[in-house]
Amino acid sequence: MNASLVITLIGTDRPGLVNALAARAAACGANWLESSMAQLAGKFAGIVRLEVAEADAGKLEAALRELEAEGLRLTIERGAAAPVAGTARTTNFTLVGHDRPGIVREISAALARHGASISKLETACENASFSGEPLFRASIEVQLPASVEPAVLKAELETLANELMVDLNLEGESAD
């Protein structure tokens, strides 16, 4: 039986951080399944899911904890089993607009009202090509409960996009 470990990490950015994590994982026989990492304001932050034989999970946790002596802060959690297929639908959307406080709060509140769960959220601010004004971009993957009518959520998100003055692109829906 395998254990799934979810590791969050943050530390001052420097070369070799990912390699230090990957080397310890490999030394314990762990498989690197999923990750999302980024340099943010001089810090390196990420989240990783590793899978390892249950008998080696403690050894892996101890090996990863050694990275804390190198200035990396870690949180290690045991993952749960994946949800049963067919209990939720996946939908993806992107939005782009002039940056301002509150965009993520408003969108996430609308999703929460419908019981939707954000499975992936990626955001960035960048300068617009012509004006140089800051643009906010978000890519969001959402799990919708079977009880939620996608057209109702879509209508609410489109209304909200107009209020926030952002462009919203719903990329469709697929079954889990």
TrEMBL record:
Record keyword Nucleotide-binding present: no
Domain of life: Bacteria
GO biological process: regulation of DNA-templated transcription
Keywords, comma-separated and alphabetical: Coiled coil
Any coiled-coil regions, as ranges: 50-77
A Pfam family assignment: ACT_6
Residue intervals of the ACT domain: 92-173
KW Coiled coil (keyword) present: yes
Protein name: Glycine cleavage system regulatory protein
Species annotation: Aromatoleum tolulyticum
